[in-house]
Amino acid sequence: MNGGEVTLGRTARLYIGAAVLRLALFTIFPGLPDLLTGRVEVSTPVTSFKRLQEGLFLYNHNVSPYDGGVYHQAPLFLPLFSLLPSSATFPIFTYLLYVAVDLLSADALLKIADSGEAVSSRLFTSPRREKRWSGFVIAAVYLFNPFTIATCLGRSTSVFTTCAILHAISKAIAGAPISAMIALSFASYLSMYPLLLLPPLLLLGYDRRPAADRTSPIAFTSKHVLVVAGIHSALFGMSYLITGSWEFLRSTYGVQLTLSDLTPNVGLWWYFFIEMFDSFRSFFLAVFWLHLSSYVGGLCVRIRTQPLVVLTLLLGIFAIFKPYPSIADVSLFLAMMPLYRHVFPLMRYTFVVAAVVMYATFLGPAFYHLWIYAGSGNANFFYAITLVWGLGLSLMVCDLTFAILRDEWEVERPEMVGKEIRQI
Amino acid sequence: MPRLLSGAFRLKNDPRILKLPPYLSLLCLLVGIAWLLLLPLDNYSRRTYISENALLPGQVHTYFGGSDQNVFRAYKHEVNSLADSNATNPAINDKLSEIFAGIGLKTARQRYGYRSTSSGVEAHGENIYAILPAPRGDATEAIVLVAAWRNVKGEVNKNGVALLLTLARYFRRWSLWSKDIVFLVTPDSAAGPQAWVDAYHDELHGGRVGSLPVKGGALQGAVAVDFAREGRFRSVHVAYDGVNGQLPNLDLINSVVSIAGGQMGMGVGIQEMWEQRDGYRERLDTMLRGMLKQGLGAASGPHSAFIPYHVDAVTLQPYGEGWQDEMAMGRVIEGTFRSLNNLLEKLHQSFFFYLLMGTERFVSIGTYLPSAMLVAANFTIMAIALWVKSGQPEGEVVPGLEGKKGEKARLVTERHLFLPLGVVTVAQALGVVPLWVFNHTPASLQTTVFAVFLVLNTALPHVLSAILTRTYNPTTQQYQLITSFSLLLLGMFLSSLATLNFSLALIVGLLSSPLSFVRPAGRVAWSVPLAIISPPAVLALTTAVVKDGGLAPVGDVLREAAFGWDVMGMYTPVVVWCVWWPAWLVGNLVVLGRPGRKDKVA
Predict the structure, then answer these.
(1) In degrees, to the nearest 5, what angle opens at C-alpha B11 toward C-alphas B8 and B16?
(2) pLDDT higher for B218 or A233?
(3) Is the Cα torsion angle B231, B357, B220, B152 positive or negative in sign?
(4) What share of chain A is helix, strand, coil (3-state, %, to 5)?
(5) Percent of chain A surpassing pLDDT 70
(6) Stated pTM of the model
(7) ipTM value > 0.90
(8) Binding-site residues on chain B for chain A (CB distance < 8 A)
(9) Which three-class secondary structure state does DSSP give residue B141?
(10) CB of A360 within 8 A of CB of A332?
(11) pLDDT value at residue B400
């Protein structure tokens, strides 16, 4: 009992520390939040806090928030943020909301880590399971990750999506698939792409049901898909009531599907679609989206035994290939990474990946400055560095995949443990 | 491909390959330096040329002269009387405003006051400017003529201001201007122009700078006149370095060189090379001076403030004994303004990144960047090498694996990352302390504070090393990782910086190059050469050598740095204290470290 109390106290101290750090950064550097909000690495057209303010202003003046083509976020943000005092006069309430969301995400992550699902799922138990970090460490890594802090300070609305995704995973692990589906529906309502996480999440939820409750997979799937559809229709209905038209569908999900806002970001889409002739646009949109969603099926089948791995890898892939990625997506992937501490020794490029990602982190803003402010560089500078960033992240995802597969393989082929292998 | 890969794998396990990186990194350094020394050769540098055809420098007749000389004398008389009576800034502006009004120009004034009691930065005054609306344009673009009342050295810019007034009257008579012309007189050469440009672009810095009541079009270019000397002169000196080492478009410098040198037949000098010769030594000297100026990133004249706003600007200073008079100087400005007037869009054709090694020779970024990148790469190579090395088992034979020879190299021991990461993070965070201290020390105390800091800085590594050994007793592997992370960060910062300010990155890179070869030696003797290349020691030594006066000039340098940081947004102090200093501190810690015995790794 005493031990339990100590851990609780320790976690509480971690949360307080993280909250104090964020509030201190908010208050000591009052210019910092607005600076970060303006950075393309933090804010994308579909998550920017500045654009949210614009939408909020229009909404509060009884104009459709989607007029003017600036606001591309979900309508339900508007009543939420108009309940808070204006962020221009009393920014502290907005700050508190964002800090609270970060802490909620960390809490979900802590539960995911403590469940041990990452090292031993229903169908697979890693031989290296002893070597793992506690939920406390993983939550700490998440909360003190500079990318997470920058996202929180930049008040990007993707923190809500992150929170919803982490809660969906944690609920699925806790054996409450209905709640998981509700959380996932919120995530995909806010930013659409989390819908692609539905298949692995269903697998995870199914695996984590107590054996007695495990009904037929088809019944399980159809029931939970129905729940997702139901929650979505409810949310859409509410959005319709709030905005008074279905226009929001086109302005939020339509923008993501057709990439009509070409503001630069750290992703790979914007430059490609700026350069493209209009006649090819729809074809390549289809190709890019097909590419993004094609990973879901493959990974679900190949790593069926470890659905949490599939979720992690998909989050990494989304952080690279989705239409409007930002460092918020990377921080979510990096939050899930430490769950696989046990396979870290099997990874081969840790140092290279860390170096590449860090180089890109510093060179990105430098090249953006040369392009936009100094006027001595051009768009190619920034795009080149986003390519490097994408390369670093994809190496990281590949390396993690390799380590996970090797871990599985060593269970099947114990005689190969510690041997050098070659990929051909 | 598979064969190539397997070859690479075999190579990876070769123990010889691990001996290579220090030599490779030394080679990078040497090639980087040699590269730099090659640049002045004819084969590596290029002749300058005008890229923007619209400029047509020196292609128009200049008519300034004749009766304008009498006008000049009259204005000179007014300016002299103001200067001799030690008139206050507002009194000068009253008089100037009267003159501008007499010419028929709209004038306006702007107050500014940079003052923070904590940092000892104090500059305030009032700018005055007049706008000549474009007779043939629609007020969308403007060019600026600046004359600071006091030049960088603090002398009264008598001829400069008088020339500005005369040119204002002269330009007023022409109907060919297609851009607004702004005539700006600032009380000093740093804060005044900065305040004016900031306000022109609506950066009011929380009320420290007054807003401008009258504005023209978007600024396209600026020329500053620094003509404090009396009598006839031989040549014109073109100062072109902006804040943080940003440079104006090369076309602007080329135009001035071609107008002054080609059309007017006067000499042109750059980088304070008063003697004009064109040999290897002179070119190298010019280039190195330019790099040093660029690296320090301080303002070199009233033009410097314009460059961060992407307004190309230069300062013209007459020098030398010759037979050129004020009218010739006026014609150079007239010619330059006629060229700028021709522009259809901002100067963009020519280079923004270049090193000049004479008025008519330059190298562009593609040619010189590799040298800084090689220097930065040397750190990264060592970082990677140390990382790989830290994963190798320490003892030759791992128990239980004796007979398996080939296996040994591949076995990677577990790395203990937390302590190295912690040490490097703490060192980086400590860098904020000197940065804050030197930017918040009152000007009068700078020298004292610096002396104290110099002493503390020498003792700091020893204290920290003692604490580190006492409490954690890091192993060899951990020291390797500490060095690796620190070098990785340094290499990363420097290669990012090289794209913004090449010279600063190269200077810091060269000064910290010994850090890539540090090993835990546990001997105090090794820390002596390192103490000499510590940032404060280098600062003290160079100022003592350049300005020969012990520690006193250091105070001036620091004051200027604090001013640059506070007013002009100069980031050199950040680089010194948050990039260079932490790397040096970690390097010194490693040298002083006595690696403990490795704990038993299961």
Answers:
(1) 155
(2) A233
(3) negative
(4) 75, 0, 25
(5) 97
(6) 0.84
(7) no
(8) 2, 5-6, 9, 246, 308, 310, 346, 348, 352-353, 380, 383-384, 387, 407, 410-412, 414, 488-489, 492-493, 495-497, 499-500
(9) strand
(10) no
(11) 45
